[in-house]
Amino acid sequence: MGLVTLREILADTREKHYAVGGFNMNSYEDSEGMVMGAARKHSPIIIMTSMACVKYVGLKQLVGMIRGMADTYNIPVCLHLDHATDIDLIKACVGAGYTSVMIDASKKEFEENIAITKSIVDFAHTYGCSVEAELGKLGGREENVVVSDSEKAYTNPEDVPRFVEETGIDALAVAIGTAHGFYKAEPKIDFERLDAITKKTTCPLVLHGGTGVPEEDFRRCVKMGMSKINVGTQLKKDYTDALRKALKENPETEYDPRPFMRPVKEACAQAIMAKIDIFGSENMA
Q: Cα separations (Å) of 235 from 4, 9, 76, 104, 215?
């Protein structure tokens, strides 16, 4: 089936009351496990890379690798650049074949956020690439993105219609109580705010900070109209836990890396399958 855009992969999510998972990858093994897990569930999937991941793996290598997986497993796969602030890198990813990018100008003032976001939309859409943006400021840490408690701010529903219309974005990340990384206490999602936002726009909405959100909150968000849910930190933990376990269980005389990495693939596949069950995207490929 090959790579598809974010606009395509989220097209009927609100109408059919399901969400597509956006999962942060860091290597071949976890991304292969993610796509493999989605294929088992016949679900679409969004493979996300951070700016640091692009620099670590390599831009052309990433695009070729994920495109190959999409062709092999024959499910809709979107390759998405997550939380990008580097304009040059965003344009390089678009030119290299990414099918979605996120411009994160959420730390800027409202008018500047609109201007920066619109410039990226105008550029990316000429390549047929989708664009996600953020309105409001999500707290926590995700690699290069750090927002302190004093800086975080919930999305104002009244700002949404103008932001969506003037930027032309394909998806909107909203701040409604989640945060990046592991939670110190159970997150308190502002469902009233989410309801107000969904009534203001038909633009697909994105929930960041999905690690540690209770299952019932996920389901409620999806039912209310959330189209994309991001999970990253949990998958890093699943990866490293599986690798540590494999290293411990295999004899010290084992030098073939594959016995250590196969459990990593499977752990990531199982994690994605569990989230697909919660997000309701099974058989939506």
A: 23, 22, 21, 22, 16
